Amino acid sequence: xxxxxxxxxxxxxxxxxxxxxxxxxxxxxxxxxxxxxxxxxxxxxxxxxxxxxxxxxxxxxxxxxxxxxxxxxxxxxxxxxxxxxxxxxxxxxxxxxxxxxxxxxxxxxxxxxxxxxxxxxxxxxxxxxxxxxxxxxxxxxxxxxxxxxxxxxxxxxxxxxxxxxxxxxxxxxxxxxxxxxxxxxxxxxxxxxxxxxxxxxxxxxxxxxxxxxxxxxxxxxxxxxxxxxxxxxxxxxxxxxxxxxxxxxxxxxxx
Length: 255
What we know:
9 helices, globular, two-stranded antiparallel sheet, 2% strand, 2 domains
């Protein structure tokens, strides 16, 4: 007697052995996934393969990105608005170049880590691209309004382009690092993503923004790299607190 689970009775010992129906399977040429072995299997088209399903999937993905994109844009705009406000409480030497905007930059990585934790690298990259596209469009049409809001002229265009390009590339790099290092050690992915993303940012931003100026940009770059490393450690505290609030979707092993 052959059972649904693919087992055949053995009358000599009363036990069971696997009754492989491989000949039938080969003749039918139907794939047999592991989770349906021994069951009636009939390939069927997934709902998302229909035009309506694809539209629904795209709209759902866009809705999930609304808050992450708004958060990243808000942090980027805040860093830009305070890009000329010096920070004097970290030493007079740093006050020549360090601004409140520099201290807000690590928070942009934190916002991306939360998206990456919840939805994965694809969503995090989409968050970055959409936020930067919308931010660039807004900056091009509202420079005067932003200057008025800040109460001072915005940083020089060369500085904005240097830091903006560096930050965009560093954001993308941090997504890849997070995705490769996520696992049972919950702190590894956010810490390494912030740390190495900060290194990439420093290596690109300071030469691009300050080369040819009187600023000792190499020393400033080293100091800021230390600040980014310290921020990567400090931001593990709110990340840990938000782990239960922002759980990963299925497929990421709970990490």
